């Protein structure tokens, strides 16, 4: 059974700017359309796509930062209905978000100890100063900020970006969540320390049976850390599968494009003539398959009808008119 699941999630925002329509209303930004995704215990699932395709919106819908326009979120198979009160607070404890910017996520006026002790106290895990100290030390150890005495009393500005992100991860762990949603957790960190933070997240998920959603624009990193990869394009999911299989034999032309443009240490320059175009507007997305204007193998049907889901194997599927043809070849 999945720990955290989004079923047919759709989110339309009201555009803050832009021209108004006939009745003075602005058209909605169709940020997320019909997204279904399931996270399993002790497993890393990557959600991959270009900037602006709706990844963060999916993260926020799963974390219930704001309500979905339609669709539902399930925790351990049970639909989440509470949007306030004790049940909602409990949900927010169980599903923790880790953000991209470790500089913005810690309070500059408080020491590391405070950031970790506060959630422990609020959730009743530490009932005395001694217990609190012990648990803060244990959390710092779990994120490899050792020797712990050196880090407990540091102020955020005394830490590197990677160390701050480790404190943010420790703070998320303090409330004993069952699912972690990490939204581009390393993209603001130095390249040299990204790997360490990703390995830490992966280890925590596997050792503690946490369901981890790793959101990234970088399919190369997803391939190394995630058991499953789901690819998103212009608000919709287009392909999903076990990471190895999906990257070895991508079935959707957009996944192929992402893999081709991923940094490859053996390739000096991008292949000649590589022109991929721009992702579409989410206010007025293309009809049919949203990728069709950029697709090198589009058929006439691709511009008129959205392709349904083609099942390709266990946990493996795609939305592409060509997928069926490829299967029967
Ligand atoms: N609160 C909001 N109000 C209006 N539009 C929004 C809001 N949040 C996001 N959007 C729009 O929804 C679309 C998807 O944004 P989202 O941040 O989810 O994408 P993303 O893939 O996470 O991009 P990035 O990697 O750049 O963060 C964008 O067009 C964005 O402008």
TrEMBL record:
Residues 262-285 are annotated as: Disordered. Pfam families: ABC_tran, oligo_HPY. Residues 4-259 form the ABC transporter domain. One of its GO terms (molecular function) is ATP binding. Keywords: ATP-binding, Nucleotide-binding, Transport. NCBIfam families: oligo_HPY. This is Dipeptide/oligopeptide/nickel ABC transporter ATP-binding protein. It comes from Streptosporangium pseudovulgare.
